[in-house]
Specification:
193 residues, alpha+beta, 5-stranded antiparallel β-sheet, 8 helices, 43% helix, globular
């Protein structure tokens, strides 16, 4: 299986940074306990390239501009819960932003009925995934899932967006395609919008 480190040049292109800067960020995420490490040397050790490890790296890039800012805020936003499911169903274990981004990576940003529009992180306490409906009676409409940081839900719902980082479809879908190829999955066959 491919390593996250070997995939960093692809991520660097998508985000306009360098593989070295991303590798430093990867090491910080390991220290925070967000990336699992397989001990040893050589192939098969280190951080494996999975949808989850790529999702964590993407969230870290959106959450923190610098290596020094890669801290507990990244952990909190990875664990942010789907606000709609929490309010409508009361399910305390609603999906996390981390799992939703990992699912988007796995799906190539496209499902049968939706295409990813953007990932957005408000660094104060929330994250959003915007999707565009591509089929059905409401084709062309968009839907947004909002994820709020645990433990501060009421504040997070009412707090204004202070600093926001967004990545759009045109930047992220080619990265998801590259991930599918590197991870040995079948690459999405749909055309990017």
């Amino acid at each position: 299986m491919a390593s996250l480190k070997a995939f960093l040049p692809n991520v660097a292109r998508a985000f306009g940074t360098t593989p070295d800067a991303l590798y430093a960020r990867q090491r910080a995420l390991i220290r925070l306990g967000l990336l699992p490490v397989l001990e040893g040397k050589g192939p098969g050790s280190g951080v494996l390239l999975t949808a989850d490890t790529l999702a964590v790296l993407i969230i870290a890039i959106l959450t923190a501009d610098t290596l020094a800012e890669t801290d507990q805020r990244v952990v909190s936003l990875c664990e942010a819960r789907d606000d709609t499911l929490l309010r409508e169903t009361g399910i305390p274990h609603a999906p996390t932003f981390r799992s939703a981004v990992a699912q988007a990576v796995t799906d190539g940003g496209m499902t049968e009925s939706y295409t990813l529009v953007s990932l957005e992180v408000s660094r104060c306490s929330r994250a959003e995934i915007k999707m565009l409906r591509t089929k059905g009676p409401t084709q062309g409409t968009s839907t947004t899932n909002t994820y709020l940081v645990p433990g501060d839900m009421q504040v997070a719902r009412s707090s204004p967006t202070i600093i926001t980082a967004t990545i759009e479809t045109k930047e992220i879908l080619p990265l998801f395609h590259d991930f599918a190829v590197a991870a040995g999955l079948s690459a999405p066959t749909q055309k990017y919008p």
